[in-house]
Amino acid sequence: MNKKVLLYLMVGVILIAGYYCFKYKNSIDQIKQVPETADPSTSSIQDCVGVCASFDPQKFFEAEESIGDTKSYTDSISGKVIKFKLLTDKAHQTRNPSFEVYVNEKLAGTVGGQGISQTSFSPNHKYFAFRMRSTMGCAGGCQSHTLYAVNLDVPLSVYLLVRPGAESEKNNKLQNFDTFIESYSWGVDNTILPTAYPVGLGKSGKYYRVSSKEVWSFNLSSLESVLRNGILVNTIPE
Fold it and tell me: What is the domain count for the chain?
């Protein structure tokens, strides 16, 4: 075999080897570019962080009564009568109806919501309190509570701005926050003490309580329509 033929064979072998090396490298690069997929058995939606106690949204509706023009509440000691009147004008035709509150046929103020619960007169017979539920978003799926107190002597209905757990909300991933008022009690010196906490809706469709249960104190002696100066008096242990 002459040297020229041998040279051609060596060049051919080198070209073939180079081709397969290039093809192998290209295949490796393509594999590296394919994104990794998570194992479906271990993937999940992280709804929230911090306090994430499971919550049943049906609790918003517990012991709820509808409000109508014929509904009234009478204090057995003072004899004073509380009545509600639905406002039907165009300005008040919203998702959450508005009602005028009357004490012995005298207008005391205006409140809003879809249902009323936890009605009671104060031990000193100066106030009438009640919890109202309102629809607050989530395409009509999220609810929130408001606590009202009506002064039986002064024409004024008071909205208590109960918004507990603000710091917990800042550290959370939930879509919507609403206030759940679990209960309230009457204190001394014209005070009322609601137990409340924020509730959030997760992307999974589950609801969570996102703070500890908190007890707040509001002094009803103030002649303001909205009381924002509630004092946190207790945090109920988990």
Answer: 1
